[in-house]
Amino acid sequence: MDYILSPTFSLMLAVLVLYTGRILNKQIPFLTKYNIPEPVAGGLVGAIIFYIVHQYFGYTVSVNKTMQDTFMLMFFASIGLSANFSKLREGGKPLVIFLIAISFFVLIQNGIGMAVAKAVGLDPLMGIVAGSIALIGGLGTAGAWGPIFESKYAVEGALPMGIASATFGMVIGGLMGGPLARYLIRKHKLAMPISQQEQTESNDVPVSEQEYVFEQPHRVRLITSDNAITTLGMFAFTLAFATIMRDITMDTMFELPTFVWALGGGILLRNVLESVFKQEIFDRSIDVFGNTALALFLAMALVSLKLWQLADLALPMILLLIAQTITMWLFAVYVSFRVMGSNYDSAVLGAGLCGFGMGGTANAIANMQAITNMYGPSHKAFLIVPLVGAFFIDLVNVVVIQGFLKFFG
Fold it and tell me: What parts of the sequence cross the membrane (predicted)?
């Protein structure tokens, strides 16, 4: 029996999950040592509890999907609303290099997927489903492409396999990003951990206008009710724009996931207000709402994971996903880290890459926040990853998928 929580209980559950993760991170040194984000720690505990409820009592408990999606769209809208054109120019050459590197990774991810799928007796196209469709693309992309693979390319089980792979990727992407960055930082002596006292003192100092949003979510933000109301109006406009564009472009060559329209709408609104109407934008307020939406979305998404879908995966599919995990680690350590400069910023970028390369941009931001809370800020990483992970890479992924289907479909 399926039981969907009301919006009120969904929000209450998400807050409980976040506090559970916070308590676990304080009480279990392993979680802090390896920079596991609080929503991931608490969310997995909730998912395990709901797995037990499903297995022994036959109930499937889910949060309110509309509320979860709204928080996701708010997060992506906040990225767009915080990105003025001057910040886009700041990305410059490093942003282009990172995008090129990750574009090659999309090719590698699908190539590895097809090779392993064929080796273990699966349809080679299943390697694309469990490759960039599910991992780079996430749950939404897997849900969209699954029926197409089943009906047009006769790949049986593509939809459930894609959903299960995306679920796996969301978990692994949240778990491996922090340890990978920590490994690189310690191996190459790139930074020293900030003491607990320094973190507390830093958090008490309000964020300045020059500091990038999302970078240090526990830092104090000074906002007023007027700022908050204005910012909420901007979020409402951006989400409405995303919904309208999704409906207009549906089944056309311009069709994009709704969250991409939310990000693009945020960028458009921010720069029109600043450049044309000379309006002041309250970055600190955007920061507060964006970080809140991110934490609540991740908590809801992870606690709603249907772990029995992973448990039911056949051995060949498990081997395929293990191969993808190893590929991600090797690429982040030996390719991405090096081409981006082999410095602290590139280590934080590696944590972000694991997040959106295996799960999604929300995972990427959470991974990087866990690292910067421990070792200090990385402006470059928090500028590049949201733009590449939430916007550019989705466009690249569509082109790559279409190319693979043209040659192998």
Answer: 41-59, 71-89, 95-116, 128-149, 161-185, 228-246, 288-308, 314-335, 347-366, 381-405
What pLDDT was estimated at residue 237? 96
pTM: 0.75
Q: What span, in angstroms and rounded, lies between the C-alpha atoms of 117 and 319? A: 9
137 Cβ partners below 8 Å, 6+ apart?
145, 166, 394, 397
Contact 130, 149 (CB under 8 A): no
DSSP 122: S
Per-residue model confidence as pLDDT tens digits over 160-182: 788 788 878 888 888 899 999 99
60-62 vs 2-4, strand pairing mode: parallel
216-219 CB contacts, 8 Å cutoff, 24+ apart: 216/369, 216/372, 216/373, 216/377, 217/291, 217/294, 217/295, 217/369, 217/373, 218/373
Q: Are 180 and 354 in contact (CB under 8 A)?
A: yes
Measuring CA to CA, which residue among 306, 303, 294, 321 is closest to residue 389?
294
Residues 2-408, CATH architecture: Up-down Bundle (1.20)
- Low pLDDT (below 50) residues in the chain: none
Q: Where are the domains of the chain?
A: 2-408
CB 181 within 8 A of CB 371: yes
Phi-psi map region of 376: left, alpha, beta (phi>0 left; psi -120 to 50 alpha): left
The percent of residues in the chain predicted with pLDDT above 70, rounded, is 88
User: CA 365 to CA 384: how far, in whole Å?
Assistant: 11
Write down the pLDDT at residue 88. Answer: 62
The per-residue pLDDT for 200 is 53
Q: Is 252 helix (H, G, I), strand (E, B) or coil?
A: coil
Q: Is-contact 43 191, C-beta < 8 A?
A: no
- CB-CB contact of 347 with 190 (8 Å): yes
